[in-house]
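Exercise 3.2. Students should predict the tertiary structure of the chain below and write it as structure tokens, then compare their answer with the key that follows.

Predict this chain's 3D structure.
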Amino acid sequence: MRKKISIGFISLALVLLLAGAVSVYELQRLRNQSEEIVSLNLRNTELADRMMTALQSQNSAILRMILSEATTPDAGYELGRAAFDEALKAASITEEDATDLAAVRTADREYREIVTVHLADDGTADIDWFLAIYLPAYYHLDAMLKDYLSSPANSLPARAQMLEKSVYKTITPSILTLLIAIIIVLMFYFFVDSYYVRPVIRIHKSLKNYLAHGIPFAPKFESNDDEIEGLKEMIDELAERKKTEPK
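Answer key:
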């Protein structure tokens, strides 16, 4: 009996231990993914802000050139250009980053080409070029930068969705293991009650009736346990000896 009960409790403990190990592993993995997404989000936000600042620096230099009727922009343009390229390169570390920044790269290439062609003297008046050609390209690049972090094509929302799925993956094994543990407990309870508790109760009741009222000891139960059957047989033997003892 002790061996069977011990096996039952050990099995239950192993199931719960497995559930705990899986949950700890999944929670640790979830924590690492959360920290990675937060870190990437902060990095991309900072780099996007640097690119927008650099773009504004270029725009200011172009405006000063138009207003002063100069033929070339001042040093602010080249400084802004260098700062923009540096931030764009820093934001393009992985293949996913490069994919996220594809629209920004395209808009920046068009913007740079428009400025370069005009500075090489395309024959267009500065004010006409600025209003008709430059501003649309500038606003387009500015819009692409603003959409960079919020665009559905951005990998960060996709990673956030993966993180959400990981939460369910973390919870699901724990719930399933808990259900399995409950089933094991119910089965174990039924097993112990049917094959141990009820036979002992019936043996006790039958023995009590035999000793108190002389009712024959004959408990009715089914048990595959040798110890329970042995207890019943020993009590039967004692009852038979009592019958044969001289009064």
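Discussion points: The chain is about 85% helix and 0% strand. The chain has a mean pLDDT of 78.
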